């Protein structure tokens, strides 16, 4: 409805009523105007009606929604199902062009505007979250692992002789596979045990650089967010080392946006040394469906180089999801989630510590990990070899999702490489343990219910275990003699 149409409405409905409706419409349009002017996340969240009005306005700018449009090409935004069309707000053309995911599509001005605005709003959120000097970013419709692969493939053109990626160990298959898929040889550097924490072995990394030759190293691939007892890599020292040897530095910041500590490490690393790009998941940080990531960096030209490496057009769904979410929350709403997550981390730590003490276990001391916690399972291991893994099964069947139970000595082969002590980030961590994390969106009710179910499972396992070592010995001897008879 433009001003001319509102004037015509006054011939049908009382002018005072029409003017009131016109003013309400201008309220929505004012919010949209500010977004277009500033390209930043609004401080206060929009109503659903404002978000939907904006998306509908974008959709009518795409050629598939033009009245009287006749498409004779192979890709004309045709959708057979009305349900599918509504699910995507009729924004069907996706983002980018065949040569550049960030390029504008001539026949999809609305989708192109959506893409540009999403990248701008997300950049603002990265700055708000702690990386204030980040220069550029873009949303890519791939999860974290494949987004890391895209970064490595881009570096290949800059360092054609390089074969190796130096990688402080983190036991997550997608991180390892991202390097293999890009065609490089991961050089795994074991972490060092510092108290209960597993930390970056800086000396071993520098030895590897000198051994392999800096020109043969594609990059250092470090990590921020991770499962305790591993803690974020020592980014400042690594960034300084990369600057010293002129080696690129890619950071896996999978769910680190929600942590001010992880974001501060990236900011400081870029300030004192070299960080070329950092990659973060959309679903883990912004509570949207799986399928997207943000690739960001401090050199706009390099970030654009990565975006141009993506072959073909791309789905707009991840961009649409995160834009809707951030417009609905506003900067204040998102910051509230971050603050609540930090508060619940302290609550989870205290509850887990109390529960561990009640069962003769302890909360592992990992203060450098701002998201994940770990509780020892020494007593459970002593009672039975199978009890540790059984605890994981019991929690899962009781609808406790996300808790990880890590036994001792597990081996796992990933793309031909055998990892000893897999999932513990170490060949020989001293004890089995259970992980729990305070991630964005968690509630106190989640923690309370989890502790209740965990307590019940631990009591059941102890009740089923032999009451003493002598009882275990007697039952073993009885089985032995009965077998000999």
From TrEMBL:
Binding of pyridoxal 5'-phosphate, residues: 75
Pfam families hit by this protein: SepSecS
UniProt protein name: O-phosphoseryl-tRNA(Sec) selenium transferase
Residues reported to bind tRNA: 271, 398, 463
Gene it is expressed from: SEPSECS
Top EC class, one word: transferase
Organism name: Nothobranchius furzeri
Function: Converts O-phosphoseryl-tRNA(Sec) to selenocysteinyl-tRNA(Sec) required for selenoprotein biosynthesis.
Lineage: Eukaryota, Metazoa, Chordata, Craniata, Vertebrata
One annotated Gene Ontology cellular component of this protein: cytoplasm
Modified residues (N6-(pyridoxal phosphate)lysine): 284
GO MF term set: O-phosphoseryl-tRNA(Sec) selenium transferase activity; tRNA binding
Binding of substrate, residues: 97-98, 105, 313
Subunit and interaction comment: Homotetramer formed by a catalytic dimer and a non-catalytic dimer serving as a binding platform that orients tRNASec for catalysis. Each tetramer binds the CCA ends of two tRNAs which point to the active sites of the catalytic dimer.
